[in-house]
Design a protein that fits this description.
The protein is α/β, with parallel strands linked by helices. It is about 30% helix and about 20% strand. Keywords: 4Fe-4S, Iron, Iron-sulfur, Metal-binding, S-adenosyl-L-methionine.
């Protein structure tokens, strides 16, 4: 776990772990290259990062016991690193609830980490036939499908979520939502793309299509819980 490459650390959040006051560990590296990614500086797996060493993160979390409820490992893609599971185990031993943000690129590592996790947010990029185009990697759709099966079979709390990517349309994502509901997803969200990345650089904004809200009204009843996070009014 001392080899865990960290790209950033947020000591407090109320948004990234449901019903928890949490810290976020941003892991460096991701094998996928989504055009709308708001954490692009975290994509490279090697090289100098802006984040603290794991030992420093561990010390900060030790100091915050009793003040925080949980710790979320985000990215990048946390499962890209073999040091993820040992780090989760340490955090769990401190008494924290543990959360993971993942796109499902490494289903085997995801499955191996289940016993150290309390909650998972799984990115569902879009229709399976479009996955390779969205993430610029072959075989990505199959990896996501396997990871989805692992999450749904884990018994853990979870959320599946889709960001409105550049070529997304209400019709496309309505069909995709129907597929996810049919596969057993009960907790789902749509979220608008951010207009800037974590470095403040501009990104392509979500399309101003009035059909999104109508589509969300159609999709919502298919799930036990559904949110459409527009990022605005």
């Amino acid at each position: 776990m001392h080899d865990l490459r960290i790209g950033g650390f947020t000591p407090f959040t109320t948004l990234d772990f449901p019903d928890r006051l949490a810290a976020i560990v941003f892991c460096q590296g991701c094998p996928w290259r989504c055009d709308y990614c708001h954490n692009q500086p975290l994509q490279p797996g090697k090289g100098r990062t802006a984040g603290p060493a794991w030992e420093r993160v561990e010390a900060m979390l030790t100091q915050r016991r009793g003040l925080l409820d949980g710790v979320v490992f985000s990215g990048g893609e946390p499962c890209a690193q073999s040091g993820l599971r040992p780090a989760l185990a340490v955090v769990k031993s401190m008494g924290y609830a543990t959360g993971l943000h993942t796109a499902g690129a490494y289903p085997t590592r995801l499955e191996a980490a289940l016993d150290t996790l309390d909650w998972i947010a799984l990115d569902a990029k879009g229709p399976l036939e479009d996955y390779a185009t969205i993430v610029h990697a072959r075989g990505a759709g199959e990896r996501f499908r396997r990871s989805l099966e692992i999450v749904l079979g884990s018994g853990l709390g979870y959320e599946v979520r889709t960001t409105l990517y550049a070529d997304a349309t209400p019709e496309k994502l309505t069909r995709f939502a129907g597929l996810l509901a049919g596969l057993g997803v009960r907790h789902y969200a749509w979220q608008a793309r951010r207009s800037t990345d974590i470095a403040g650089r501009p990104l392509i904004e979500a399309p101003p299509d009035p059909g999104w809200h109508q589509a969300a009204a159609t999709v919502g009843p298919w799930f036990e819980s559904f949110e459409f996070r527009t990022g605005g009014p």
